[in-house]
Structure formats: structure tokens, C-alpha cells
From TrEMBL:
Organism the protein comes from: Nitrincola lacisaponensis
Protein name: Transcriptional regulator, LysR family
UniProt GO molecular function: DNA-binding transcription factor activity; sequence-specific DNA binding
All copies of domain HTH lysR-type, residue ranges: 6-63
GO biological process, one term: DNA-templated transcription
InterPro entries: LysR-type_TF_proteobact-type, LysR_HTH_N, LysR_subst-bd, WH-like_DNA-bd_sf, WH_DNA-bd_sf
Keyword match Amino-acid biosynthesis: no
Pfam families in the record: HTH_1 (PF00126), LysR_substrate (PF03466)
UniProt keyword Transcription present: yes
Family assignment from sequence similarity: Belongs to the LysR transcriptional regulatory family.
Amino acid sequence: MQRFCPTINQLLSFESAARHSSVTQAAKELCVTQGAVSRNILSLEEWLGVALFERINHRLILTDAGKLYLTKVRPSIHTLEAATVDLRSNAFKFDTLNLACAPTFASHWLIPKLASFQALYPDIQVNFIPYALAESLMFENDCTAVIRYGEGVWSNTESLYVLGKELVAVASPQLASLIHDPNDLVGKPLLHHTSVLHAWESWRQVNQVVGLDSYTGMRLEQYNMIIQAAKAGLGVALVPQFTVESLVQEGSLMPLFNSVIQGWKGYYLCYPQKNQQLRSLVAFREWLESHKKRHKNRVIR
């Protein structure tokens, strides 16, 4: 049965012309003649039975139908391109690890250490896929594993705790100069993670601070944002220790009280059971475990 689908040349001409609002620029990008692009677009419009463009002063302006069609077609073209690039780049490699990773963990821990993994396993290609799509891609072949933040329990997945439960209080040097013991936090601005709103209350109880309003203050959705806010002097942050080690060493943030409390959320490596014996995942899991042991019981000062 014949598929109800335009040709790839028609779709590529349409998408490129829509992006550039120009047949000339589309032709240059696709390395074909202007006439070829025009014919592809006209034949596509005839096949669909609707006008995709208005031609105004030598420019192409998308019609409402064209705008709607572009939103549906463009992701499919990107998927085809990505699949082709992936196959060509990995044609002679043995294994691929397609990883979705929480941005904070990726930028503060994984990326700086990834060279050591590649040195151990030069035949494993690590690809980062969009973290926002992790939930939908988890059970597809496009995603090997996800490093995500939470309590470690997700349906239909295996999870391995990596890091992140060890929380430390930090502040900018200027704000830290005003804080000498836990009671000095009373009246100071606190920074909160939107999914860990009880963290400061746990800290207050551990340090037996009376009078600290542990639920007020700016709320931010990522630790990356909290760290930047702390550097800017907007408040005191309670963050996973590993995220600020380098910043403390360089002096842009100061640790308060040299103490660590244990939170109940952290960063976990998660994967469906069907992937657990993949060589790339087994190697990555063992590598994470070895680095986790080196990091255990470390306290920044």
C-alpha cells in the first residue's frame, strides 16, 4: 500500500524556504537550483490541496495552514537528520550510551569528570539527549539511562544513588562575613529549591536554631540557579556539596559552619530493566560507583 506522505525533497524545500522566507536562500542551503525548490513547494501545495505560502514582494510568508504544517513537519525532519548523523558517527563504534542528565549534575560533576570515563572506555560513545524528554524516552531505544533528582523511587525503573544528599550551607564572601554561627542566620535571606522546600527546616532542627523562619525566601527550580543567586549575594543557599566544591576553592562562595546535613533527595542513575545488561551501561554504572566511593565523607572547608 502506498504511503500517504510527500517526498523528502518536497519537505526539505518547504522547511528550508519557511525558515529563510526565501527560495534563493533555501536553494543555496540545499545545493539545488531555485527552480527545483519552487517546483517542490508548488507540487507539495498541489498534493496537499492548500497554499502553504503567500508570495509578497519576492518573499515567502507562511499561511496559517503553512505555519501549522511546519510545526508538525520540522520535528520529523530533525529526527531524520539526528538518526542519520547518529548512524554515520557510530557506524564503526562498538557501543553507545545515550544519556539524559539533570543539568546541575551534568555541569558541576559529570562533564568535568567524563574524560576519565572516555579514557577507560574509548569504544563507548556518550551522547547527551534532552533532559526534558527523559520521561518519554526512558523506555525507547533512544535513551539508555537517565540521571535524575529525587528520592530514588520511580515506576518500572532500576535506580542507583550517586550523589547529592550531602547538603552544605554557602554564601557569598560578603554575606558570609556576617555569619559566624548558626544562630546568625536568623533574619538572613534564605534560598530554596522548589522541590525541596523542607530542607532549611531540617537544617534548623539539626542545628537547634530558634527563631529561624525556615520557609521564607526566594524559591528557584534548579540548584544551578540557587548557586548563581548565592554568588550574587541574594541569600544563603543549602545545596548538594559536590555542586559548590570548585566555587569554594576559588573563593566565590564560602562554606558556613563546616558541617554537612543529610537530605532525603539526591541524584540517581535510572534505567529500565531491559537495559541493565548493556555493556555501555554496565561500564558507566561501575565508573559512577568508583567515583562515588572517592567522594564519600568529603567535607569542604
